[in-house]
Amino acid sequence: MRDGLKAKGERREAEGGRRKEEGGRRKEECTRHNRSTRYFQSSPFPAMTKTFAERIAAMNAMYKLPAHAQPTLPGEVAERLMKFKATLLDEVHEIDEIVRMSKNGGAPADIAVAIADLLGDVIVYCRSEALKYGLPLEEVLDIIMDSNESKLGADGKPIYDANGKFLKGPNYWRPEPRIKALLERRGIRAAAK
Fold first, then answer.
1. SS3 of 193, please?
2. Residue 139 in contact with residue 182, Cβ under 8 Å?
3. Domain covering 50-134: architecture
């Protein structure tokens, strides 16, 4: 019996050592995570707990940009779209700078940062623009992604042509009718001029 208790004690001691080792690994992983997010900790701004959409709404309000709770077409839609196009083209032209950086042997981290910044800016501009029109962008994106997934073949795999272009499968459906139905359910309206 004494030998059995001794063996049990040794097992507990060994288990405790493993737990301590695992705890140390977890602590190291957390420390690594904290180092990678250090810029949040040293930021003069408080930690953000709002969703991306809420932060965009706050940004639009801060900069006194239009924002609508329901789908709304402003009277000057053509003018607004031309301004948005110019903004996006400015961002798209940054790709040339990134390509130049890549061809001239830029540091991989600098290239990745430039790409991330470019893509992030485009997403912010698009989400802000959607709010100006009161478009439920996340729901629209769900419809578009569902449509993209409907392009697969009957076997659930992508279909390619000879040039590698994706082809539409037998179950493909266009997203526009469903987007229209969504906006109509949300009460699309024209803004007063």
1. coil
2. yes
3. Orthogonal Bundle (1.10)
d(C-alpha 121, C-alpha 98), whole Å? 14
Return the domain boundaries, the chain: 1-47, 50-134, 136-193
Q: Residue 88's CB: how many other CB atoms inside 10 A?
A: 15
> Is there a contact between 97 and 113 (Cβ–Cβ < 8 Å)?
no
Which tokens is 158 given?
């992508």
SS3 190: strand
Task: For residues 65 and 125, give the distance between their C-alpha atoms in angstroms, rounded to a whole number.
Answer: 12
> What's at 73, amino acid-wise?
L
Which pLDDT band, with edges at 50, 70 and 90, does 191 fall under?
Answer: confident
Q: Which residues pair with 160 in a beta bridge?
A: 166
Question: Residue 101 is encoded by which pair of tokens?
Answer: 């950086």
If we measure between CA atoms, which residue out of 180, 145, 193, 178 comes closest to residue 71? 180
Provide the residue count of the chain: 193
Of the listed ranges 39-43, 79-83, 170-174, 175-179, the one predicted with least confidence: 39-43
Q: For the segment 79-119, what is each residue's pLDDT rounded down to a tens digit?
A: 999 999 999 999 999 999 999 999 999 999 999 999 999 99
Give the separation between CA 174 and CA 12, rounded to whole angstroms. 62
Instruction: Count the Cβ atoms, other than its own, within 10 Å of residue 25.
Output: 10
C-alpha distance across the termini of the chain, in Å: 92
